[in-house]
């Protein structure tokens, strides 16, 4: 379950971090001892913290670069639609397309829309990297729990 979650982060089909955390939770329930519950608590704190950073940091960078919230909103809506239309990569394609379309409509110029689109791509990349780093930390917490337990 943990390995599937890690793959799900890189290939955005599955809720990767949630699966990694869920794998630790299933293990903790099966072990049913203080050490396992402690590992689950630490893994939960790491996952929650990483989830907050995953959404705040890229969003703040987009906002600081002048990309308005309406652009991010349209990107998010098309990203969700893209998830169902084009499996695996649709969420990323939809988000980037949504950002480009919103900026093109706002600025009335395709050349002016590209910088915002590049920033959106960078934000998606940061989001994936943050989620992957968080999932790897959760996995490391679990491995330490296995070794010490």
Description:
This protein is mainly α and 149 residues long. The chain has one domain. Helices cover 87% and strands 0% of the residues. The protein has helices spanning 2-10, 16-31, 34-64, 69-85, 90-107, 110-148. The chain is elongated, with a radius of gyration of 18 Å. The relative contact order is 0.17. The mean pLDDT is 89.
Shape: elongated
Q: What Rg do the Cα atoms give?
A: 18 Å
Helix fraction by DSSP (H/I, runs of at least 4):
over 70%
| Domains, number | 1
Name the structural class.
mainly alpha
Give the terminus-to-terminus CA distance: 20 Å
User: Beta-sheet strand percentage?
Assistant: under 5%
| Total number of helices | 6
Unreliable stretches (pLDDT < 50, length at least 5) are: none
Biggest sheet: strands, sense, closure? none
The total of beta strands comes to 0
The helix/strand order is HHHHHH
| Average of pLDDT | 89
Short overview:
The chain has 149 residues and is an all-alpha fold. The protein has helices at residues 2-10, 16-31, 34-64, 69-85, 90-107, 110-148.
What is the topological layout?
Elements: H1 2-10, H2 16-31, H3 34-64, H4 69-85, H5 90-107, H6 110-148
Helix pairs in contact: 1-2, 1-6, 2-3, 2-6, 3-6, 4-5, 5-6
Keywords:
149 residues; mainly alpha; 6 helices; 0% strand; elongated
């Amino acid at each position: 379950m943990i390995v599937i979650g890690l793959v799900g982060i890189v290939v955005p089909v599955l809720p990767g971090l949630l699966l990694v955390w869920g794998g630790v939770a299933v293990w903790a329930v099966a072990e049913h001892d203080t050490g396992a519950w402690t590992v689950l608590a630490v893994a939960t704190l790491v996952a929650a913290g990483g989830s907050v950073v995953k959404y705040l940091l890229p969003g703040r960078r987009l906002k600081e670069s002048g990309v308005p919230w309406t652009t991010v909103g349209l990107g998010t809506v098309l990203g969700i639609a893209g998830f169902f239309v084009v499996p695996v990569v649709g969420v990323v394609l939809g988000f980037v397309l949504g950002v480009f379309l919103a900026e093109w409509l706002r600025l009335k110029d395709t050349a002016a829309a590209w910088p915002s689109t590049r920033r959106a791509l960078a934000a998606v990349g940061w989001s994936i990297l943050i989620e992957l780093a968080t999932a790897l930390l959760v996995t490391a917490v679990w491995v330490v729990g296995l070794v010490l337990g």
